[in-house]
Amino acid sequence: MSLDVIIFVISAIVAVFGATMMIAQRNAVASVLYLILSLVAQAVLYIQLNALFLAALLIIIYTGAILVLFLFVIMLLNLRGSEELVDKSSSLGRVTKYLVSFLLVLELVFVVRSSFFPSSVGGGVMTSVKSTGFGSVEGVATLLFTRYLYPFELTSILLLAAIVGAVVMAKRERNATAPAPREDNVTEEVKR
Amino acid sequence: MIPISAYLIVAAVLFGIGTVGVLISRNMIVVFMCVELMLNAANLALIAFSRALNIMDGHVFVFLALAVAAAEAAVGLAIVLAVYRNRETVNIDRFDMMKW
Amino acid sequence: MADYLYLIPLFPLIGFLINGLLLGKLSRSMVNLVACASVAASFVVSLLLFFDLKSLPPDSRVIEQVLFTWIPSGTLHVNFGFLLDPLSAVMILVVTGVGFLIHVYSTGYMKHDPGFGRYFAYLNLFTFSMLTLVLANNYLLMFVGWEGVGLCSYLLIGFWFEKKSASDAGKKAFIVNRIGDFGFLIGMFLIFWHVGSLDFRVVMEQAPIVFIAGSGLVTAICLLLFVGATGKSAQIPLYVWLPDAMEGPTPVSALIHAATMVTAGVYMIARTNILYMMAPDALMVVAIIGAATALFAATIGLAQNDIKRVLAYSTVSQLGYMFLACGVASFTAGIFHLMTHAFFKALLFLGAGSVIHAMSEQQDMRYMGGLKKYLPITYITFLLATLAISGIPGFSGFFSKDEILWKSFSSANGHPILWAIGFVTAGLTAFYMFRLVYMTFHGKERMDDETRKHIHESPYSMTVPLMVLGVLSVIGGWIGIPHIFGATNYFEHWLEPVMAAGKHFAPVHTAAAESGGASTEWMLMILTVVFVLAAIFIAYLFYNKRTELATAWRQRLTGVHNLLLNKYYVDEIYGAIIVRPVINLSLFLWKVVDVVFIDGFINGFATMYDGSSEFMSKMQTGRVRSYATLFVIGVVILIAYMVME
Q: How far apart are CA C160 and CA C119, in angstroms?
């Protein structure tokens, strides 16, 4: 076995293990940490696929920004793995959910294994990379600022909208003394 | 050399685990994280395809997907905050008054 | 002057709008003023136009005023226009003249009724509709008036709608009229189909070109129009509504159900005379139906005890005479009788109204008697009208009825049997009318004391119209004195232009028969008069001199009497063979088809959707995770499907 294969197997196992542990944890903080583990392993896979820049981005954005944000929120809400958050749906329901997800994976694997894709993509051995710049910052940037300029610019608008949205959503309502009538309806609804 | 299908299968498995997490977890934040995981599984598949076809456009898609994920996380967590402030819980099963 | 033609129907319409829109806002005297003044104005304009028309040479006595194009639709082009010719001139004079008198009478008669505003609004609407009917220059506009008078008739019969019998009678009149209208409409469609126009003048001009005389088509058109006439003018088999129409206020009976509306059928046939002249078979049917109705209704009238019902059957009978006249191609005689009948029958009804008014709403003649000394004016005018309808020489009814009888004998379309039926009917008419007079005004006073105390002569607003109509009943016939008296028959000359076109189709031997028949005519006339006098004498004997004789005869002929008293059970027969099956069919359609099938179908669908949505809403738990599960199941199935492909 070559080194490549060993690295692939290890990182694949770690990625799957991290993901599994993430959903198995009752404590949200532990889940976040396991997700980070999984993502780091995935970053290794990215590197194997010559996507150096994206591997870096994945770690920076996900582990550095998004998951920190998650952690931050969890800490802020002071959530603990409470009894309430354990799935109490019937065993039949839970089996159905596992089964459905399993079927989904099976189907996806089947699609991958079948001759669904052109042979150059399918199970065939990967050709060597065309240029030395494949996956580099320069390569990605060239595409971003040429062919994908408009989508890239639009992304900035999306981010702006997200910032505004997040601010509005998270803002505490000023008029706390006079609760909005909608809230009354909500409690009524809950009682019912 | 490792065949591309190996990466795709890893992506599929990760996606499946993410699905299971979304379906069985009651914690809104965990559900959210599982969605992120599914997103990344898709990213992995994109990178693998990109490598197999020797075209870098897939990298751009992943780049954009990361930007979208960041925006989504910001808004999503803001919603979680707002909801928690109203209902004092993140149990996703408690938010069922939108039925009928 | 001719430009003012449209004013004639306009005035009553304005009166209707004022009284109708300001219902309950106007004082009683104001309502009376508006109602009477509008009709009076119409009458004045009618008179002016009549003299206008008279000043024209006979051949050009036609005034047509087209106001606007009503329906410009492809080949169907209908104008909204009025046509004044000698025929419609007679009609508008009768309608506005008699109508005005009855309006005046109504102000007295309806004095104590709280619904006076509504009453006068309807009455004005009726006058408007009737004038539209007779002035229309095409069939479609005539039909509008035709329906309008039907509507007013319905409204006024059911005027006291709190009474179930009144509202039932209104509905009956409306439904029976609808049957006739159906025939009228089909006839109208056929005319349009073949002539391409509904304009009277175009139809009259085109008819000899388009239709073949005596063909099945023109006979069918005439018969269909006649079906309409039987509905409106209460002929067999559609006469049943008219006696029931007496539920309405008495002046309404006088105006609508005696003088004007019911004569619309006669007018329509006279207006269409050229088509009828081209269809001898249809004419024969008209004559037979007319004669049969005359006799049939007269026999029923013999046994009725309700004063207004006797008059109602009398009206049906007299209308039968008019159709008999039309049926023997003597449209002039029909219209002449229409006019004189309008005078004396309106008078009879108004007189009966006066009696009923005096008798505290008692209508049964068995509880009257001896009213002569309480109601002198009513009695004298009533007697004049009775003499007129009986056909005593010198009175208006004599001339018109005699002409009809003579024409039914002598005309090429006539037949001695038709004359015989008319002859017998004349005797019966005299008998039942004098029976009515004797039972009401002569003999023992059979009312109770309470009623007797309240008997009073009617106010002037009611008696003055009676007197005017009394005069008209006497002299109204003098304009149409037959040739054999050596006088000029002005009426016939007046209507000649309208009938001229049809004359072309009349069989040729008439002239010879008429010239050689002067002595026959004298003989028949004297025969009739003697027969009528005999009938009056019998009535005198039975109901005044020796009333026990009447009782004895009644007992001897119990079966016949019951048959007549129950109007030959026609209502019951109609009920059994038409109304009952229709009701049963309706019940079937309602209970089975509608409730079970249609409702069941629709409700079944509703229940199905209700049930399935009940089930679906169970799936809709509101929980995101179950939705997600379903979503994933869907994805799995979709991918499986795509992979299978």
A: 10
Q: Tell me if A79 and B29 make a contact (CB, 8 A cut-off).
A: yes
Lowest mean pLDDT among A27-36, A45-54, C339-348, C571-580: C571-580
What letter does residue C70 receive in the DSSP assignment? E
pTM of the predicted model, to two decimals? 0.67
Total domains in the fold of chain A: 1
How far is the C-alpha of C430 from the C-alpha of C490, rounded, in Å? 27
C442 touches C544 (CB < 8 A) = yes
Could you tell me how many CB contacts below 8 A there are between chain A and chain B? 246
Amino acid identity of residue B68, one-letter, is V
Strand partners, C76: C73
Determine, yes or no, domain membership for A113. Answer: yes
Spans of chain B below 70 pLDDT:
1, 98-100
Q: Which of B30, C393, B41 is nearest to A112 (CA)?
A: B41
Please name the member of A93, A100, A111 whose beta carbon is closest to the beta carbon of C643. A111
| Inter-CA distances, C3 with C44, C51, C134, Å | 15, 14, 17
Residue A191: inside a domain: no
The encoded tokens of residue B7 equal 């990466």
- What pLDDT digit, counting tens, does each position of C122-160 carry? 999 999 999 999 999 999 999 999 999 999 999 999 999
Minimal C-alpha gap between B64 and chain A (Å): 7
Domain ranges of chain B: 4-93
Can you tell me the ipTM of this complex?
A: 0.91
Question: What radius of gyration, in Å, describes the C-alpha atoms of chain C?
Answer: 30
Three-state SS annotation for C474-525: HHHHHHHCCHHHCCCCHHHHHHHHHHHHHHCCCCCCHHHHHHCCHHHHHHHH
What residues of C are in contact with residue A116 (Cβ under 8 Å)?
Answer: 643
- Residue (of C64, C77, C550, C502) closest to C269 by Cα position: C502
Instruction: Write the CATH number for A50.
Output: 1.20.120.1200
Q: CB of C639 within 8 Å of any CB in chain A?
A: yes
Judged by a CB distance cut-off of 8 A, whether residue A179 touches chain B is no
CA distance C219 to C16: 39
In a domain, A57, yes or no: yes
For chain B, give the longest Cα–Cα distance.
55
Tokens of C188: 């109208």
> Chain C residue closest to A97 (CA)?
C629
List C-alpha distances in Å: C281 to C223, C228, C329, C409. Answer: 9, 17, 12, 17
Classify the C-alpha dihedral C585-C588-C589-C593 as positive or negative.
Answer: negative
Facing residue for A100 by CB, picked from C625, C629, C643 = C629
Query: Residue A111 and residue C629: Cβ atoms within 8 Å?
Result: no
**Cα–Cα–Cα angle for B62, B66, B67, nearest 5°?**
120
Q: Which domain range does residue A79 map to?
A: 3-123
Structural domain contains residue A116: yes
Q: Tell me the C-alpha to C-alpha distance, in Å, between residue C597 and each of A133, C339, C609.
A: 78, 55, 18
Residues whose CB is less than 8 angstroms from the CB of residue C333 and which lie 6 or more positions away in sequence, other chains included: C325, C400, C403, C404, C407
Q: B4-93 in CATH: which number?
A: 1.10.287.3510
